[in-house]
Design brief:
The protein is mostly helical and 150 residues long. The chain contains six helices and two strands. Strand 1 and strand 2 form a beta hairpin.
């Protein structure tokens, strides 16, 4: 007989909030058994799936990527090559994100250093953050009807 446990114990074992586990069920990442009274009962394979999702999310994989990963695990074409390609593609996405975040950090650091520590009411930080880099003057636009939409 297969042992199945309720969501509270699963949450404790896996380290995820019950709300997150319910969400993963709602979007089809995990499918626990349901009793006649509606209680969820998780089998060992459900717990392993949740642990994999948690690990993948900790590595920065999106929900969509988690679905793909689970599909690869369940698929007939399961292979180390697929998993490695999948992981390398994610590493490239992370590298790109790190570059963008590094640039944002450096720019924000420069902006923060350009604002004085005095009681002035104008601050370079706010001026630079609300500056919209566009062509033309947007000051005359009062409503959507004033926009030149194609």
């Amino acid at each position: 007989m297969t042992t199945a446990i309720r969501i509270g114990e699963v949450a404790d074992r896996v380290g995820l909030p019950q709300k997150t586990i319910r969400y993963y069920e709602d979007i089809g990442l995990v499918t626990p058994l349901r009793s006649d009274n509606g209680f969820r009962y998780f089998r060992e394979k459900d717990i392993q799936t949740l642990m994999l999702i948690k690990s993948a999310r900790d590595f920065g994989f999106s929900i969509a990527q988690c679905k793909d990963l689970l599909g690869m695990l369940d698929g007939a074409e399961r292979s180390n090559v697929l998993f490695k390609e999948f992981t390398i593609a994610h590493l490239k996405q992370l590298e790109d994100k790190i570059r963008r975040l590094t640039t944002a950090y450096e720019r924000l650091h420069e902006v923060a250093n350009s604002c004085s520590d005095d009681e002035e009411t104008s601050c370079t930080i706010l001026e630079l953050m609300v500056k919209v880099p566009t062509e033309g003057n947007l000051n005359n636009i009062q409503s959507v009807n004033d926009l030149n939409l194609i």
